[in-house]
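Table S7 (text form). Paired inputs.
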Amino acid sequence: MFRPLELFIGLRYTRAKRRNHFISFISLVSMAGIALGVTALIVVISVMNGFDNELRTRILGMVSHATISAVDGSMQDWGGAQKKAEANPHVLGAAPFIEREAMLQGSRVGGAIVRGVLPQEEPKVSEVHRKMKAGSLDDLVAGGFGIVLGRELSYKLGVDVGDQVVVYAPEIRATPVGAVPRLKRFTVVGIFEIGMEEYDAGLAIVHLQDAERLYQVDGPDGLRLKLDDLFRAFTVARDLSQELGSFYRVRDWMQGHANFFKAIAMEKRVMFMILSLIVAVAAFNLVSTLVMLVQDKQADIAILRTLGASPRSIMGVFMVQGVVVGVIGIAIGTLLGVVLALNLENIVKSIEKTFEISVLPSDVYYISDLPSDMQWSDVGLIALLGFAFSLIATIYPAWRAARTQPAAALRYE
């Protein structure tokens, strides 16, 4: 005989044609609801992961994973410090920098952060050389007083490659005609576009030696680091600062953008909770399906009880049927969700081309594509969550079936 009996009867009830077609319809609706809920949850979480990775990549393409800077004054022996930093197995690159505020004047005036770098070292720690829209980072030559601007900043100043920009440092110097701000005329040699307003509209890059002359300093402010694991940033930077000496300050990328990434993580958690409720509602439609099925199968339950089936076996029968419906819905939803998440960008592009629309217009949004980053751990968690909801939804109907009294159920048969 087929064992276990609960599984056999539960599967038979699932396959059998019921006299009450309304129960079958509700069962299909429950299955479809679970499938749609799981699909939506997988796709939305994948899109949230995609936006998170896209923003993190763009931000960290300009911001170092960690910085080590001198507490007081400039870092004198930065070459030795760079060698020690790059000797660390987790450090992929280290480069010196100077970063100060300034006012820039072209056709118009605007404020920005001026970053002094060494063009040959900067590619070790940032992606700006890959984001150049005009000119090149190598066009920054010591003593040439060239400057590279973000695209939005160039629009704000009304300048282009080859134009002149006057940079005003926030220091005052005494002259025979009185106190005047320190200033220097630079030539625009390049324009970059990262895709983040913070940098495209607020960052200008010059050669390290030109920044030293502009701000009257005798060395870089510190070192910017790029690591193999960005989540090790603070630990690696702290270890390096202890090795270099006690007069250094450590700062990792999370300290400067912690609130931003916390907001993204919070939004992802809230979205997960909302969509989980949708899956839960769909799963709990099984309650009404199984309650009606229990009512429809009263005579069968009574006969099973008279043949010796225990209340636990009766519960198992209906829990099996509810779980089977839930598992089928979860399997369909998982398959659809994975397919959509893996092909979402192509699907969106096809829709845009077919209907001649733009889902994320590039003139409005910095991220004009719909990124998707499906992670199998999320898929597994969602499937497990759907299964748990389906299992919980079967408990009450199965308990009601187990309480059926044979004599009462067969009284009018």
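Next pair, protein 2 of 2.
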Amino acid sequence: MLLDFNRPAVTGKEQKNLEEVFKCIKFSGDGPFTKKCHTWFNDKFKNSKTLLTTSCTHALEMAAILLDIKEGDEVIMPSYTFVSTSNAFVLRGAKIIFIDIRPDTMNMDETKIEAAITEKTKAIVPVHYAGVGCDMNAIMTIADKYNLFVVEDAAQGMMSTYEGRALGTIGHIGCFSFHETKNYQCGEGGLLILNDDKFFERAEIIREKGTNRSKFFRGQVDKYSWVDMGSSYLPSELNAAFLYGQLESADEINQNRLATWKGYYEGLKDLEDAGYIELPTIPENCQHNAHMFYLKAKDLEERSALIRFLREDEIEAVFHYVPLHSAQAGEAFGEFRGEDKFTTSQSSRLVRLPFCYNLLEEERNKVVDRIKQFYLGKSDAK
């Protein structure tokens, strides 16, 4: 049996919630379970306001509209990220300015931001890779200095913190994903976090196809109409019901994943100590959520050989992002500003190991054992 790279989390509570939706026959968005999710997130994130979306991609697109990103604006972000981070701003006509990453966390290098700023710069988009926070103090200091917006791409960051603050709540806007590969999932889904009240009313309108329909349902207007640009960013009640089943077990899922992450780290630490691999770094001021576990091989050739070796034992390990600045669209819609010292070299070494909620201990141990066999066998051959 193939040990899949990912198995979507299912707690057992989702089916009961879905059955309630069928009984109520309320399938479109902003029903009882959407409201329950919003209450859960608003309690979790305190002073922020939240809106469920159909995906993190759409949350990012809403952020770009809310910030009035226009043609000619520049948006700074790492090249080591998913295409949605860039596409959201490209769709508004912005030029993407890619900067280098830090080799320890794979997050954007905050020391490279200031040199990339011009009079056209409108926003900075830190991406919290693997649920490990970027240096948000430094990023917010730069943003304040130059009067820039900060949109946190926290797609992988639910339940993670930076200096005790939840990721997604530090910048002006935060965006999360509930894709089936994430810690909490509903197949496809996302969340927009608004950390400035001035954005909320317009965000509701954008999310409802540019209408003031939400105000109508609250009795604030006697009819609703088209008042702004927007699109259909509202998830169905089925998605919300499924997601709420996961949120009800959020702490259990988090602790389970952290235990798996710790098991991988402890199992592979001797290989790192011997100089064969590098393991993830978690800064002291960050609490991560065990979104993934990765290691870094010596180079691209060794990474490819390790992935093939594991596949022979029906273990699915994978590499991750190909840097966006090297892609055809990246060249067309952006530029890399500064030196690519780590983005390409570090990304070509990274291997993601099978990881999911309720990964069995024997499955994790099998992966660890095979990785050790790969490296120690090669060492003995020398």
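The mean pLDDT is 96.
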